[in-house]
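Re-run with default settings, no changes from the original entry. Doing this only to confirm the output is reproducible before filing.
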Amino acid sequence: MPHALLWPRPRAALSSRAVSRQESTTPTAARLQPRRSVYDVAIVGSGAGGGMAAYMLTQAGANVVLLEAGPMWNAVADGAMLEWPYDSPRRGAATAARPFGEFDACLGGWQLDGEPYTTAPGQRFDWWRARMLGGRTNHWGRISLRFGPDDFRRRSIDGLGDDWPITYQDLAPYYDEVDRLVGVFGSMEGLPNHPDGVFLPPPRPRCYELLIKQACDRLGVRCIPSRLSILTRPHHGRAACHYCGQCNRGCKTNSNFSSPGVLIEPALATGRLTLITNAMARAVTTDDRGLADGVAYIDKRTNRDAHVRSRIVVLAASACESARLLLNSASTRAPHGLANGSGVVGRYLTDTTGTDVSGYVPRLADHVPHNEDGVGGSHLYMPWWLDNATLDFPRGYHIEPWGGLRQPGYGIMNGIEQYGAGGGYGIALKQEYRRAYGTLVGFSGRGEMIPNDDSYCELDPEVVDRWGIPVLRFHWRWSDHEINQVRHMQQTFRSLIAAMGGEVLSPMPSAGDGYGIAPGGRIIHELGTTRMGADAARSVVNGWCQAHEVRNLFVADGGPFVSQADKNPTWTILALAMRTSGYITAQRKAGAI
């Protein structure tokens, strides 16, 4: 790993009398940072990829400036982990700024005031954007899955899509390092395309999860402990999870993974990271050689244009935001956008497929009161277990179960409304609530989409945001591959509920509505808009996530992905960003960039 490589210092001193204060409630972030005339690296975005790049590069000795479009955020100081719904007049309900609930660690959403996006006529794509330090790593399921060996060579297996220019073996050492740095629990299973990792012990299944495991065993569905980046043991000075179950509110003990708490804080501690928050990146700027020389941005506090200069630029703003930046960085040298001589920027956009089924399970009614404490998420999951050669869709999916006592609203109301209980007052009503509480069990599918020519983003020729920056226009189509896959999800989930002795709460969706497939973008796993490849005519970056056409420009988010896989992408974003950061350091030391 590149920690030991020290960056060569430039001959000219990089100093300035100007000073800026990065305000935060956290002691390590609230420091005076010298503003440099030129930084070694400018990073756009502070989520998984940007946070990892900041961590690795500052550890290696680089002076880094990180631009974040939202405000400061620190889970320990700013989270609402132990707030009760009744602490708010809204009872914790969603707001425009927090669509997942008032106490959620989420600043952003599918619709942002003054930051529109458009879709092609008759099509739908829902684009979720985070606006806070750490981005999406503050609100996510923390499902931390490695891509498997087959996921890097799908075209060689089934003839669809493209192979990656790298292999699992190329990335495996970085997956290991991410496991050791961040912490992830799981179990050693020896599954060929669901690689094991460097795991902490997993928590034990809850009561309803034991019933799910029994049903899976009866139907031949593989069911194993989840793999989540939540600490079950103290790790690198961070406390173990205390099982409050509020992971998406921001962990005040820093026991789960978010970029600010695990990556950015240590980067700040080096004294080599300057944070510029509320900085809306407009474009990557270039010099007379066509090399990146910094980032132009708008200071959202003043609405004034600003610029940071750097020797290297790393884009980690999320797949679509980074594509938008490149497209908006057009010049006479690059008329179709920076690093876009291939015309591939914005193309090959994918999202994870998804659908849900829930059911009432009578065996969970009238339960003996018991402790269902645990992490914020399921303790079990079901990796893909079938051979696609025998099915009518080419790629797989995994299953995420949910329910039990952690779903009080659904568990009570669905049980009461669907099965004739409820009504009345006083003791009778309370008894009905107690009987139905925890009777709901549900399953969510998350599957692989194959890139297609009809799913992409481009600049809208007419619409701009509040700062005059052209916005993205999305084109989207699910193919029969994904529709058939989601039909199989629906059928499987209904079979699992039946095997539990339960009753499904909704009818089977029709083919006309795609068997209940979630709209594009709704799973918030968009990937592939700046994909990597060996052929510069068909890709944006090489196997090191380095732009083919601009050697000191790199992408460290989900954009370089060649395939979606049936696994959540965050762990692969982290591993790729770590690998890319090591390459940047080595190339800088060699004088190549």
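Residues 480-499 form the longest helix (20 residues). Residues 190-225+353-447+479-516 form one domain.
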